[in-house]
Amino acid sequence: MTTAASALPKQTLLHLAGELLTPLPEGALWWAARRLLVVSDLHLEKGSNYAASGQMLPPYDTGATLSRIEALCAALAPETVLSLGDSFHDRQSEHRLPPPYADRIRALTGAHDWVWIEGNHDPDPPAHLGGRAARVLRLQGLVFRHEPEGEAGEIAGHLHPVAKVAGRGRSVRRRCFVSDGARLVMPAMGAFAGGLNILDPAFGPIFPEGCMAFAIGEGRVYSLPQKHLIPDVRPGGASAGGWRL
Q1: Which of 44-48, 53-57, 175-179 has the lowest mean pLDDT?
Q2: What is the pLDDT of residue 169?
């Protein structure tokens, strides 16, 4: 079977707590030995949340995000899917879900052992959409939670990491995985999710000895040492920071 991981022109692999993991260009993480797929920060129905406050965004973020997950599940056939928190943008998101989207979620949770990790936006994952909830999940030497604490073997989300590099007279800013070999922070997968530059001070306590970015490109993931990265800069010249999570 051709999988999303094997279809990459060049596989990028991560070693964490003795386990071999594959970061995918869709923004998910594949643990082949356990047939486990990890996604993070889907922020489903963020568009409808913004619309309620008068900020009109195209109402297609949930459909686009679900389509990426459905394609990965069809290609990889995972036994388990972990959604690492903030799967829904707010506590009312489940009630704003159009019925076709709710049906698609139930189809996913019915086909896989689906685990909703509790997030700060969705501490009570919706029971009527299937799956099971957990605050933290430990498997072998890995620990899965929403907000990173810096524990060895930890895989977390919450910070929405992005990496920025400069070259040939322009800069490129991409969502990324970030790891120091002992712990990892996932990129946000939600279509409307924002991003925080990994040079922001928020990442310092998690990676005190520095880190490596694994940036999402077109059809592959690129390894970027921290020394090649640049911070975000506001128009006035000051480094950007303090992005709200």
Answers
A1: 53-57
A2: 75
Q: In sequence order, what DSSP letters do the residues of 184-210 get, joined into one string?
A: EEPPP-STT---EETTSGGGTTT-TT-
Name which of 218, 142, 157 is nearest 190 in CA terms. 157
* Model pTM score: 0.87
Q: What is the pLDDT of residues 125-146, one digit of tens each?
A: 777 899 999 999 999 999 999 9
Higher pLDDT, 143 or 236: 143
Instruction: Give burial (CB, 10 Å; 0-12/13-18/19+) of 113.
Output: middle
Domains along the chain?
Answer: 14-228 (3.60.21)
Q: CA-CA distances (angstroms) from residue 92 to 49, 58, 95, 117, 122?
A: 9, 19, 5, 17, 9
